[in-house]
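Reply to dn_fold:

You asked what the input looked like. This is it:
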Amino acid sequence: MFLDLVDRHHGPIVVNRICEKAISYRTRSAGDRQRLPLHTRVQLNHQAVIKVIEEMEANLTEPLLLDELAGSAGLSRRQIERLFRRELGCSPSRYYLDLRLERAHLLLINSRMPVVQIAMACGFVSASHFSKAYRETYGCAPHQSRLPVN
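and this is what came back:
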């Protein structure tokens, strides 16, 4: 959005210089995906695992149960657990938790949302549960990850 605004006011040469500085090779159009395709990001090609991860990513605020995720992929809970261990080296629950914590981390460093709201937005039932999980993963309390306001 920023680059589109710069393009309108200053032209493509300035946009290209900004992209070079930001190590970006182009601006996205409105219909482009913001993230790389899932199979590229997680380096796997097992369609059932990809489907489950896509469901997880689409349901970070209200996490789905593993049985629901397995059902959407047409497999049993046990099959999904085995596939995740084999393909990703962790359980589906751990992977889901890590996705939610990653989202929370991005919100902490890129927004001014209160920690409690971030916890709820990332599917945690309480701020204390979120803080404990965050501390175990990132080695500090959520509020310590905030970038200082200038």
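The mean pLDDT is 83.
Hope that clears it up.
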